[in-house]
Automatic annotation (TrEMBL):
Species per Swiss-Prot/TrEMBL record: Rhodococcus maanshanensis
Superkingdom of the organism of origin: Bacteria
Coiled coil segments of this chain: none
The protein, known as: AsnC family protein
Residue intervals of the Transcription regulator AsnC/Lrp ligand binding domain: 5-70
Pfam families: AsnC_trans_reg
Length: 75
């Protein structure tokens, strides 16, 4: 299963946060973006029981102030 994690960061930290997150297990891509969120991340987990662990690793990255996880609908 996959999900998007939308991230708000401390001012000026978006690029550093995106770079750090891109190295974490389960992260497919992490991009710094413009708009209401500073970083958008696409993650992958084997199932819904593993997804919280991936998100928790992301939330531990310094410089993050808020996250919103959006699970991709199964087809």
């Amino acid at each position: 299963m996959q999900a998007f994690v939308l991230i708000q960061t401390e001012v000026g930290k978006a690029l550093l946060v995106a770079e750090a997150i891109s190295l974490l297990p389960g992260v497919l891509v992490a991009e710094d973006v413009l708009g209401p969120y500073d970083v958008v991340v696409r993650v992958e987990a084997a199932d819904t029981t593993e997804l919280p662990g991936v998100v928790q690793r992301i939330q531990r990255v310094p410089g993050i102030t808020r996250t919103l996880t959006c699970q991709v609908a199964a087809h």
